[in-house]
Every structure is written in structure tokens, then in C-alpha cells.
Design brief:
heterohexamer; A: 256 residues; alpha+beta; Ribosomal Protein S5, domain 2; six-stranded mixed beta sheet; four-stranded antiparallel beta sheet; B: 241 residues; five-stranded mixed beta sheet; 4 helices; 11 strands; globular
């Protein structure tokens, strides 16, 4: 069985697709491909393909942050992308993915939310990040986080007319205020070894996975242990953080 | 129902520069979703749809199976970022209706009786919407079925016709769709001119209706050629969304 | 089996209930029967019975049509009406029916929506058409469209007090502004033959059905191919349109 | 809780001219829904309910069956146009509760043990609401069950009692319902005076509660006669909603 | 079987837990135990335990009662409390329970709703009663009604600043305006005998149950026949009312 | 992200008077829900969670069973009155995610393979929320599993670490949670220091992350002792929520 084969190879430090343990699949980032979206990006990590669209709208701020814009992140595991995905509202995995991507951006202060305030307490920009999986071959979270970041960098404001309180979506002007760039690096533990960018066959037998959000400046903005039925030791987490910071540089290059 | 005041036809040209019976630039590619048994991306101007087919495969739970033929399931959806105002994810009444007419448009083309107890799932996702999304979905779904090797009587061609500012036109874009006097989305099998999808709303004389249907069938043959070209291209080159 | 019998008869141009191919079932239209509704109608097409209530309320217009009223059409296939109907939210057939009836009225400009504007961009009349199936013996769409049209013609405005911004639902005044009348005629193709007003036994074996909305002036306002697993030729559609226009006159008589 | 200021009883007469213990005009017809195994329409003044019964029939899926008796299912609903402000379609908390008490009101009357593994479905739809809709539904459902030939210990009679402006009354209309001091909807089998539905809300002394219950039982016998009349009439004439 | 045993004992006027037919289980009421709630109470009736939290907020009044506050009562049969409860939205039993508790409070005029009006037609206090079952051993309704009443008596207003239109939830001031106290007493009919405060084993074999809401002044504010497949005679109801009024005094003592 | 202006650390003390590495007052009791197979109440300051375990028991319907091991199901929820602004009942996206990470935190500790075809249900309800609710839920769930006699490799300890106003702290309360520079909720089995839950959001150097993780593991040993004390206490005295 594929499971046994994956584990057998790992014992020798090898992987089914021939990669080294710390090697990413080929990365491809294309932006501006959805004309209806204010920002968009398609990211491939090997055969995993994710499309992200950023839409902007105007809404009311939350009462406890009256001078800040609003971020809403949603992920759809469309049945188009895998025989394992089903129609219906997002399941726990899609919800977890959206929330991990969202936290990395929100808590890493990637967007300058105060610059999204139009009128304190009344009108702010709302930023919608919609993650649409097109093909699932593993490590959706890193592909999604990279595509979300690329789409945010691509995004421009539609022209806002404060007198008519109307958006002219055909006239785009000015980029979203982005403070930093962030990417995530996901590691999987198999047979006690840590590898990066797992494919589906590896995710199925992983003891656990750890996703680490890393910013351009090398600081950590999010972590999420997920997948599998296992644990990490302190040393494993510690090494994973170092490895993630090193691999993040490769991913960040694709955002330049 | 026209909601804007500017003219949609000026000097015999449409707002995007087309002649009344001109179809937008067409892009068709098959095999774009690696996981799927069949898939296709179809673009008419700024309307872009990706479709995937999973199956034929055994239908579970068993009590839903039809012992005499495969069940065809269709789901049409729009990505939240495919429209100017972000759409809420998930099916609404419109997409439920379109999923049904899409299924009725494709069923007559498929030899469902060759796969008793099976299910064939067809998913069409609108990535960019600029009018005529359901007929673009038919083209994508039809190509994805062929790409999956599902045995078919013929490909199903999708194309819309309509009337704007008194002129009969083909392949409505979004602005025309929202402001037309009539809109007729159609699906048909070119061989034998078998109409499998036919909807209309607006205000037309019977003669106009018939004329538009005829225009769509005639022009649809060009779309049919594009479909066949895309299927041939697959064997030459593999490309992925 | 009933299916075979229906098809056998059709081969000879005959139908199980003795009708000719182009013959409607007896039509009966009663209006004003629901006192709580601003307009109402009960329509029988043979043993198919549909009740429609029209309610009026005041709401905000859509941003892209600030000077037009709002139409909302809903259909319930109540389990009261057939052993085949189940409790729960409307299924695809009920949604399709409501949308076909709605489009015929909306796109055929049956209601003068601009006259439903109370204050541009702020207040307009909302027209709710609720279709309630009481007994399903086939061709629900023609019965529903006829009942909806009859109920619209029956509907009167509740008195609106602009100062208090209140409706007095016990005082009705003035009819809804109706431009035209519209009905639908549904044809079914069985064994290559076209027949009108199909009953359930015919719908079950139909290759396809075609519903055509026809206005008083003989113009077409909507079409919907539905039912079955078959197709129509151009000639079949063409003849169907002509037949629908001719049969629409019989139905329109019941709205006088 | 009274929300309006105008009196509801003037010179011993109610707002619709009735005496305190007078019941509104009653209309009862059975066999009104052709597809149903049993059906009835019941009108008390401007409150009108239609009920249909499907079954007894085998309950599916099988694991829900009770090997010793039939399952009774009840659904009470209101048409969107049955009330002054259009109601959203679909069940709300109120209709879920009423569906339950309706089931509990009917179950004691039915010989469920005669149909092991079966289901009996009862649907009551309020077409026009002017108070007392749940008890009107009991009358309609009870007649529909009898019309379906379901074996019953007795018919179940529905009638409401209450108190407005200090006066004990029967058969509350909508305005009385919304402004009463107390409302007691009841269902009972007249033979043996077996109470199967009893709800109350308001503010009453124990003596008032007992007196109203007695009034309802006594006056309910007239409703019982109407029910029997409607069932007899069925054999004379067939009429349909 | 337990069912047979329960019924056999009842024939002799005895109960499985040794109580007399008209004897309540031990009652315990604790208030103020949830610090985040404006009012709270935990009630035990034997092994049945119910927690109620009262939250206050500011909202718009209903159009037909512009000068009255709003009461919203909700019950969750959390799967924590019984192997028979399932996750998911409230079922018919939880909805019925919440509505019975709500009606007893609302129609018995327990709260002075007019004193909850801040600005007529615009701003009123909303009172949320959330019933959370912790352990279900029968007679949830009496435990819930008692806990709801105790929590209402415990509730205080958070400080409202009308200028900023803000609530300061850390400063509580002034009690909810309570007119009366109300409790419910539930009786079950088994083998023709009436008993109070049924446990689950008794509820399962009851012919029917009757819940009666009684106010301090001995007046009845609500009744609900529920449970079982049986009926009550007039005499049974009559005696049940008298018994409920007598037992209500025992329950009311716990609210002093 | 800090949303308020007032300092959260003054003279080396936190707003509730604690030192940076000080844990709030802990209360732990097992056997608090009589109906459950196992249960526990855990309080850290004003955060209070009750957890119940039902099972191991046969999983139905059968097709969901795993022939090799038990299925663990976790549901985390918040009572509507547990937070300042009343929360809508029912699961939201946050509680769905937490239910998942809770399951992943507990699974490594349970000998699931001892109960093929079974299900173990774990319910954690937040009765009062003042920060760190998910790690408090881990403690309660872990105790409830032990109380139910489910065989475990070790107890799972939950504790949060973080950074506020530049200071590394433990056991965040609600105000710290909402205004911290970083928050790291963790779950781990003390024997062998096996980390089963690890989340983080904020903005930290790698060294800070590692330091906080180490602090949590070290301080977690005190929480572990409290857990063991609560389990022992059960045999001395029975007390119920």
C-alpha cells in the first residue's frame, strides 16, 4: 500500500516524489488573473493549485475597533478539486485553514488596518479574502497563505465617491496598505522525521503537522499543530521553527 | 429590463466593439484539473468557467442507485470574487435552478444506460462573470465529460442570444444581460440540432424568438468547432489551470 | 404499467383522461378568497389546485433600481398536496417553478414597478407572491402562473400613512398598477408528439416539457425547457410557440 | 396582555358582535384534497385551516419503525399570506411547539397499535389566521383522520376559551387572542370528556381556570355535532377545495 | 423492566425513589454563580441540575409594543447532560420547554416590561434567559422555571451611558423590575394516579403530564399538557390545579 | 493586537495582580455530571469549563465505525451567558476549529485501539469565559476521560503562554488575550513532554516562541499536580455541579 511505501522511504530520508525532506515542490505565483476581483492570485505548489480573490467593500467597523478596517477570510474546498471534497458548507478542515490564514495576516499586522478607516466608527473598508482550491495534492495551507499574500499585494482600491457613497468598481486606484509580507511553512512528522511541504500521501500517514507563519523580518506570526494523531517534542518544535524560517525565504522570493 | 440610459448599440457596434452576431474571444482548454477524471476551462471574453467531472463511479448509499442507468449530478456555483459585489459563498436559489437546467441540458447527450448504479458528478464553477455564465458552463461541462471519456451522443454547445436596443444579438455580456429586452440562453447538440437547454425572458414577438433560436443554432457551430479543437489539442500538449 | 399505457395511447393521439393533445383541462379561477391577503386566487386545472396570496409591504429599493418596487415570488410544494412532496425547504422543482413564474411577470413588465416607488432610493412597495400548492395532478406551473396573475389583478394597496410610516391593513384602496396580463402554457413531448397541460402520469414519461409565457398582446415573455431527458428540434419549438399563443387565449379569458 | 386601549366587550357584546359564549360561524368539509388519503377544511369565522392525512403506510427508513404501533407525525404550518404581515415560509419555534401539542392531542384518539411499523402523517395548514388556529387545526386534523378511515376511539374536538376585559369567553378571535387576560386552547374527546390538549397562558384564579375548561367542554359538544355532520355530508356530495 | 416496576409500585401509591406521590425531590437554589451574566442561578431538583443565565442588552422594541422591553428565552439540551441528548439545534422538547417558561413569565406579567423602556419606539432593554441543562433526571421544566425566576431576581442592570450609547458591563446597578414571582409545578399521570416532580423513569411511562405555572398570589399563569399518549379528565385537571397551588408554596420558599 | 491604551503590566504586576509567570487560582473537580460516564469542572480564575464524556460505546450507524479503533468526537461550545455580550447559541467557525484542535490534543493520549468500532464523545462547555478557554477545556476533558475510566497514556495538561507589553507571561486572562502581542495555547502530556496542542498568533522572535513554550511546559507541571489531586479527591468525596 502507498501508506507503507511512503513510510518505508522516509526511514531512509527519501520521499515518493524524489524530493529531499526539506525541499519544497516547484512554486508558481501568478497575479491579476481575475478581472472582477480587486486583487487575485493563483499559486501552484507542485500539483496543488489554489486561487485567491480579494474583494473590497465598504461597511461599518466593529464597535471595539472603530478606526480599523475589517478582514474576512473564507475557504471553499470545492468538490472540483478532489474526489475527497464534498458539496456543502465548509467543513472543519476548510474552516481551520481559513482561520489559520486569517490569523497569520491579522495578528502579524500584515495590513495597516487603521489606513482602512474612512470615517471613524462609521465607515471602513472591508477586505474579503476568498480562497478557492482548484486542485488538492497536499499542503493546501501554504499554497493558500501564499496566494492570499500575493492577492493582497495585487489588490487596488475601487474609486470611492464619499458624496454619493458609491464605489466605482471600474476605476481602481492605489494599492492596499501592506506593512509586511508573511508566508506559512508546513512541516509534517513521519516516522519521527520532519519534512516540509507534504503531499496528500504524506499527510495521510503523518503523525502530526505544524504550520508556522513567518514574516519577511524572520519573526513568527502564527503556528498551528494539526493533522495526524501524534505529538511533537520541544526539540522538534524548536527545529521546525528554524527550518520554517529558512524555507520561508524561498517562498517570499515568489512575492517580489 | 433596461436599467441604464446609455445606448448599448452605437453605429451598429456593441459596447465592447462587437457586431451584433459576433461572439467574444473564446478560450477552451481541457485537462486543467489534475485530480478530476475530466475537466475544462472555458472563457468567452471576461466570462470564465472551470468544470470538472468525477465518475462514472458507484453511487453510495446504494439505495439511491438506479439499476438501469447512471445518475447525473450537476452543481453550478459562482466564486465569491467572480462578480463586482462579493457574492456569499454557497448555493442560492438562482444557482439551484441553473444546476437543474444544466443537468437537463447534459443528460440527453450521455449514454447513462451504459453505467447502471453509477453516478457522474459535474461541477461548474464561475471564476469570472460577465454574462452568459450558464451557457459557458455548458461548454465547460460538455468538454469535461468528453475529457473524462464519458460516452456521449454529441458534445453540447452553449450559446446565448437576445435583443438589446431593438437589435438581435448573440453572446450577451454582463451589461447587455442586465439591460436587454430579451435573453435566450441555449444548449444544443449540433448533430441533428437537438435543443437541450432553452430559457427565455424578456418581451419578444414569436417571430423574434424563432429568429434568435435560429441565429444561436447557426452560430453555435463555430463554438462546436472550438470545442473539437480543444479536445484535439489535449493530445498535443498538457496544460493545467 | 401506467407509463406504457400513456405512451401507447399517445401513439394514436389519445390521452388517458380522454383529452385531445391540444386540449386543456377544465379551468376554474376564484379570487379574493383569502381575507388576510391583499390579493388572492385559487386556480384549478382539472384536479390540480393552486392557491396564491399576494401580500404588500414597504421596504427599501435595491441600489441599482432606486425608483422601482420589489417583487418576491416563493412557491411551497406543501406535503398536503401530494404523497411525493416532503416537508422541508423548497427543492429544486419548487425553486424553478417560483423563478419561472417570477420571470414571466418581471421581464414581461406585467407590473408597473415605477408606480410602486414611494420615495426614490428609500421606500418602495414590496410585492410578495406566495404560491401554495393544494393538490398536485400535473402542470403546476400553468396553474401557478394563472393564479399569480389572478391574485395580482385582485390585489389592492393597504392604506399607507406617510407621516406615521404605518400601514393600515384593514383599509384597502386602489389596485396594483398592472400593465398587461400574462399566462404560461406548458407543452410536453411524448413519443415525439406535443401535448398541452400534461397530467402527472404524462409528466413522468415526457421526453421534455416546454413552458411558454404569453402576454395578452401575443408576445412571448418567458420560456423554460424542463422535465424529462430529451430534446426539442427547432421545428418543435417553433410549433410549440404557435400552439402556446393560441392556447393562451383560452387561459386569458379566465382573467376577465 | 392587553396592548390596545379600546374595549373588547361593550354592552355584553364582543367586537365581532358575539355574545361571550358564542362560537363563530363554522364551516367544515371533508375530502377537499384529492391526493390525500383523508382531508378536511375547517373554518371558524375568518380562521381557516386545511388538513390532509397520508397513511397509514410503511415507515421508511425501517430503523425508525415501531414494531408495536404506528408512528404519528404532525406538522402545523401557516401560509405566508395567512397573517397581516407576511410570514416567512418554513417552521419557526411556535409552529414546532404547536406541531408537538397537536400530535399529543391526536394520539390518544387513534388505535395506533393496529398498524405496527406504519406511519400516519397529518399536515395542517393555516390559510387564514384570525385566532384559535391550533384548535381549528385539531378539528381539521381529526376530520381528515376520520376521512382517511383511520380507526379512532372518538373524534377530537378543538375549542378555545379565555377571558377578555374581565369576561369569560369562548372561541377567541385574533384581536381577542392578542389582548386577552387569558387564553386556554383545548382539545378533547367528547365521549368521556377526555382532555388531550390543554394549554393556558394569562392570569387567572384557579376557579376561573376550572370554569373556562368546563365551558369549553360543554360548548365543544356543538362543535362535535358539526364534525359529525361534515362526515355524513361526505357521502351525499363530493366537493373539493 | 424498570417501566413495569415503576407502574407496579405506583399501583400501591409508591415510587422507585421512595417518595410519596405528592413529594418533591430536595430543592437547592444558588444564585450569582456566573460572573459574566447579569443574573444567574443553578437549581437542583434531586439529581436534575439546570443552570440559567440572564443577559441584558439594548435593542429596538417591537412595533406593536413600542414602550416595552423584550424577553427572549432559549433552552439548550446540551449533550453534556444526558446520553439521550444530541448535538444540534434545539429539538421540539427544548423549544417547548423554553416557550412554556417564557409564557409563564411573560403572560404572568412577572417582569414590569414598561420599566424596561429607555426611549419609546427606539430603545428598550432586552432580557435574554438562557437555560442550560447540566444533568437530566426528569422534570426539567420545573427546575428550569425555578432557575429562570431565581436568575431574574438575581439580575442587575449594567450601567448605561445614554450619551455614548454604551453599556459598562463591569458596573452593575439596580435590580430588574420584578412584579411577582412565579414557579411551575409538573404533575404526571401514571396508572390513573397523579404524582408531582416526575423523574425520567416515571416520565417514560406517564400517560400524560401537566405543567402548571403558579404565582405568589396563588393565581395560575400558564398550563401545558405534555408527555405521554394519554388524557386527563376534568376532575383530574381540577385536582391537579389545587395540588400545584399547594406545592408551589414549597418551591416559592426557595426564592426568598 | 492591542486595542486599549492602558498598560497591562505595571511595576511587574499584571492587571489582576499576578506576577508574569503566575497562574490564576485553579479549581478542579471530577464526577460533577451524574449522567455522564466521566465529567469534570475546571476553573482558572474566572474561566470555568465543564466537560463530560459519554462512552466508549458502540458507534451507530455502523458504516461510520472504524474496525481498528474507537472514534473520538469532541465538541467545544460556549454558553450564551459566558461572555459579556450574549453569544448566539450553536456552533460558530471559532468553536468548530477549537473542537478540532481539542480532538487532536486528546487523541494521542487515548488507547483508541482498545475499543474498535466504538465512539467516545467529549463535550466541553464554557460556562464563564475570561481567556484561555480552550486550554481550560483540555484540562476538563482530560479529567473527564480519566474519570470515565478511558485508558490513557497520560493526562493532557492545558496552559497558555504569551506576551503582553513586552513581557512573557503565563495563563492569559480575557483582557490580556484581547490585547496581547502574542498568545500560545498549548496542550501536552507531561510524561515525556509530548506536545499535542500548539497554536500561536501574534508577532514574536523565534527565541521568544521557544522560551514561552518552555515556560508553559515547566509551569504545566503544577497544573498536572492539580489534575492528579482532583482525581484522588474523587475517591474521598462525591460532589456534583
Amino acid at each position: 500500500m502507498m501508506e507503507d511505501y511512503v513510510l518505508e522511504l522516509i526511514r531512509d530520508g527519501r520521499r515518493v516524489d524524489g524530493r529531499k525532506l526539506d525541499e519544497l515542490r516547484p512554486v508558481k505565483v501568478e497575479t491579476g488573473i481575475i478581472k472582477r476581483a480587486e486583487g487575485s492570485a493563483k499559486v501552484s505548489l507542485g500539483d496543488t493549485v489554489v486561487l485567491v480573490g480579494v474583494k473590497l467593500d465598504i461597511g461599518e467597523p466593529f464597535p471595539d475597533t472603530p478606526n480599523q478596517g475589517i478582514l474576512i477570510t473564507n475557504a471553499e474546498f470545492s468538490p472540483i478539486a478532489s474526489p475527497d471534497f464534498e458539496s456543502g458548507p465548509p467543513g472543519e478542515d476548510a474552516i481551520e485553514l481559513a482561520r489559520v490564514v486569517d490569523r497569520g495576516i491579522r495578528e502579524g499586522k500584515i495590513i495597516d488596518f487603521e489606513k482602512l478607516c474612512i470615517k471613524e466608527g462609521e465607515k471602513v473598508w472591508m477586505v474579503f479574502i476568498d480562497i478557492h482550491v482548484l486542485n488538492h495534492k497536499g499542503n493546501l495551507v501554504d499554497a493558500s497563505a501564499l496566494a492570499a499574500m500575493a492577492a493582497l499585494l495585487d489588490a487596488k482600491f475601487p474609486k470611492y465617491d464619499p458624496e454619493k457613497d458609491e464605489l466605482d468598481r471600474e476605476t481602481l486606484e492605489g494599492k492596499l496598505p501592506i506593512n509586511h509580507k508573511v508566508v506559512t511553512v508546513t512541516l509534517a512528522k513521519l516516522n519521527g522525521k520532519m519534512l516540509v511541504d507534504p503531499i496528500v500521501d504524506e499527510e495521510k500517514v503523518a503523525e502530526a503537522t505544524l504550520t508556522i507563519g513567518v514574516k519577511e523580518d524572520g519573526k513568527v506570526s502564527s503556528m498551528q499543530k494539526s493533522g495526524g494523531r501524534g505529538w511533537f517534542s520541544y526539540d522538534e518544535v524548536s527545529k521546525a521553527i528554524d527550518l520554517a524560517i529558512s524555507k520561508s525565504k524561498e517562498l517570499l522570493k515568489h512575492l517580489e | 429590463m433596461k436599467k441604464i440610459e446609455e445606448p448599448l448599440i452605437v453605429d451598429g457596434k456593441r459596447i465592447d466593439g462587437r457586431k451584433p452576431e459576433e461572439i467574444r474571444e473564446i478560450e477552451m482548454r481541457v485537462g486543467v484539473i489534475k485530480n478530476a477524471d475530466g475537466s475544462a476551462l472555458v472563457r468567452f471574453g471576461n466570462t470564465m468557467v472551470v468544470a470538472a467531472v468525477y465518475g462514472p463511479k458507484p453511487l453510495l448509499p446504494k439505495h439511491l442507485q438506479d439499476p438501469e442507468k447512471a445518475i447525473l449530478r450537476c452543481r453550478y456555483g459562482m466564486a465569491p470574487f467572480s462578480v463586482p459585489e462579493r457574492a456569499r459563498p454557497g448555493p442560492d436559489r438562482r444557482s439551484i435552478e441553473i444546476s437543474k437546467v444544466l443537468r437537463l441540458a447534459l443528460e440527453p447527450a450521455i449514454f447513462l444506460e451504459e453505467y447502471p448504479r453509477a453516478v457522474i458528478e459535474v461541477y461548474a464553477e464561475v471564476l469570472q462573470a460577465d454574462g452568459s455564465t450558464r451557457v459557458t458552463s455548458i461548454n465547460a461541462a460538455s468538454l469535461a465529460l468528453a475529457d473524462a471519456g464519458v460516452p456521449m451522443r454529441d458534445l453540447v454547445v452553449g450559446l446565448s442570444g437576445g435583443k438589446v436596443d431593438g437589435t438581435l444579438i448573440l453572446d450577451l455580456n454582463g451589461k447587455e444581460d442586465n439591460n436587454c429586452e430579451a435573453d435566450i440562453p441555449m444548449g444544443f447538440m449540433p448533430r441533428g440540432e437537438k435543443i437541450t437547454l432553452l430559457q427565455m425572458d424578456g418581451d419578444l414577438t414569436p417571430e423574434e424568438v424563432k429568429k434568435i433560436i435560429r441565429m444561436v443554432i447557426d452560430a453555435g457551430k463555430k463554438v462546436y468547432e472550438e470545442q473539437k479543437k480543444a479536445l484535439h489539442a489535449k493530445y498535443e500538449k498538457e496544460e493545467v489551470v
